[in-house]
Amino acid sequence: xxxxxxxxxxxxxxxxxxxxxxxxxxxxxxxxxxxxxxxxxxxxxxxxxxxxxxxxxxxxxxxxxxxxxxxxxxxxxxxxxxxxxxxxxxxxxxxxxxxxxxxxxxxxxxxxxxxxxxxxxxxxxxxxxxxxxxxxxxxxxxxxxxxxxxxxxxxxxxxxxxxxxxxxxxxxxxxxxxxxxxxxxxxxxxxxxxxxxxxxxxxxxxxxxxxxxxxxxxxxxxxxxxxxxxxxxxxxxxxxxxxxxxxxxxxxxxxxxxxxxxxxxxxxxxxxxxxxxxxxxxxxxxxxxxxxxxxxxxxxxxxxxxxxxxxxxxxxxxxxxxxxxxxxxxxxxxxxxxxxxxxxxxxxxxxxxxxxxxxxxxxxxxxxxxxxxxxxxxx
Length: 379
Fold this sequence. Notes:
The protein has four helices and 28 strands. By secondary structure, it is α/β, with parallel strands linked by helices. The protein has a 13-stranded mixed beta sheet. The chain has a 13-stranded mixed beta sheet with strand order 5-6-2-8-10-12-14-16-18-20-25-22-24, with no helix packed on it. Strand 5 and strand 6 (49-54) form a beta hairpin. Helix 2 (267-325) packs across helix 3 (348-359), helix 2 crosses helix 4 (365-376) and helix 3 runs antiparallel to helix 4 (365-376). The longest helix has 59 residues, at 267-325.
């Protein structure tokens, strides 16, 4: 099913519960376009506020300046091109976000990937890997249960991560970066980076021109350039700081880097295709049900017509016999011997036809009585 809703250029979209996958795209149009299973989709509109729920997959297009609040998605979710602000309470499956403004997330149960945000990003709890790239605003991650990969964030960064962390930063003057990791941290910066580094780990490895490593040190404070940005790193394992841009590609100790090279470009299209498949299946099943019903109705009509014709012929034969010779049926074969009549029971169809003939004055009441008697085997 496809549905178009008009709610202005800056509508407020509330997705209460999506039981399947979600594809949400901001576009230049002024209408909201919904695509999903008609039997599973419900929505209400109150001015510029539109509330939507779906018991299956949902694909939705909204004006790009719409604001979106999502209560719960039980499958995977893809969001792209929404510039009015996004709030998410809980995503059970994977979440991919592209080219948005600000994003605030309470809980992500599976992997999360974001690329391209003009505003801030905040996450209270991420239960799996997190990959973040190209954010103009601040990034705040209260809890990440697995790995974190972060690159090209132009605002402040704070993060608490249970596993490995990979950071590609170009520190800006006055910015603050504070990251705590339960395992290893890899920090990659340009050779001319300006930052003050406060480091704490089991082992600290600095690959930087002019800086000598201290193999026994578990904490260090270093100044790079004018030291105008503040970077504080605390790791339960090791910390490695380097200006080699390809360091993340060869550092096998850092696991999968939370998908630093993950390609989710087709994620939203995949969900849209799944929604189309579900919708097409529902339409096909509905068509098949209608066709079966039509065939059954045609067959029932054919049987009823045949039965009626047979009944009419039977009544007509018995009518002629009753009107001509009373209760006797004569054998018109050469023997010409009269035989007593059979005793068939009169059917409801026969009674109706006799009454109809009486009503239409094709027979008299006396003739109708004789006919019924003949059919019932009476005198």
